[in-house]
Amino acid sequence: MTTTPRVALITGASQGIGAALVAGYRKLGYAVVANSRSIEASDDPMVLAVPGDIGRPGVGKRIVDTAVEHFGRVDTVVNNAGIFIAKPFTDYTDDDYDAVTGVNVRGFFEVSRAAVAQMLGQDADPRGGHLVTISTTLVEHANSAVPSALASLTKGGLNAASRALAVEYAARGIRSNAVALGIIRTPMHRPSEYDTLAALHPVGRVGEVDDVVNAVLYLETAPFVTGEILHVDGGQSAGH
After folding, report:
1. Domain CATH code at residue 193
2. Which residues, at least 6 apart from 64, have a Cβ–Cβ distance to it below 8 Å?
3. Is residue 148 included in any domain, yes or no?
4. Is residue 239 part of a domain?
């Protein structure tokens, strides 16, 4: 077993924001447990790839258990994995509901529950534990051009849960925050869409992956910040 001072568990880590977060946490000196449905092993011995669909019961706890077996602890969880389906409300199917709530809600619940239990039971670190959850600014700034009630249903709940956990565990040294995103340049979008999507943001551009990583790492290194919903959305939540 390899031991290390700090360990971050990142879901949805195979591409886009998740892969960049793995690199960001490694630069901070963290070991990383990287999860996605299908993720390849890393050449970096301090990055442990753990495949698994967190929308399935029991997978979240298995990932945390594997992290502890390999690195001895879990200090941070970044709940990055998520499913976003934009369509009119009455067009959503039962399969859509199961897919979105499975990953966005069950995945958050099972990974975070197991991780917090581990954080509470392991040797105390003066920097404490940390949960960071990736959300969307659409929760607070709905847009008729992007109908996405399932995103609001699930991510809105995660915003509320992030605040609740911040208060519940503040005295136990565990912080909880969320990062609410606007449109970010990732494989989720076609390059031809970005000019149109840029117009959704007052700053006139879409976000870059580095914008998200910088926000998450700020929260990681800000011990007096908890219960925060940090908007990384080019001013979208402020108005237009």
Report:
1. 3.40.50.720
2. 9, 74, 111, 114, 115, 118
3. yes
4. no
Exposure string for 30-56, b = 16+ CB within 10 A, e = fewer:
bbbbbbbeebeeeeeeebbbbebebbe
What the block records as the tokens of 149 is 């009630």
**How many independent structural domains does the chain possess?**
1
124 has a pLDDT exceeding 80: no
Is residue 1 situated within a structural domain?
no
Give the pair of three-digit tokens for residue 214. Answer: 């910088």
Residue 122 pLDDT > 70: yes
Residue 100 to residue 212: CA distance in whole angstroms: 22
pLDDT for position 2 = 47
pTM score: 0.94
User: Nearest-CA neighbor of 180 among 101, 113, 238?
Assistant: 238
* Structural domain boundaries, residue 152: 7-232
Edge-to-edge strand ranges of the sheet holding 229-232: 47-51, 31-36, 7-11, 76-79, 129-136, 174-181, 229-232
- Confirm whether 14 is domain-assigned: yes
Residues with Cβ < 8 Å from 183, sequence gap 6 or more? Answer: 189, 197, 198, 200, 201, 206, 207
Any idea which residue has 């360990």 for tokens? 7
Please provide the average confidence, as pLDDT, over all residues in the chain. 94
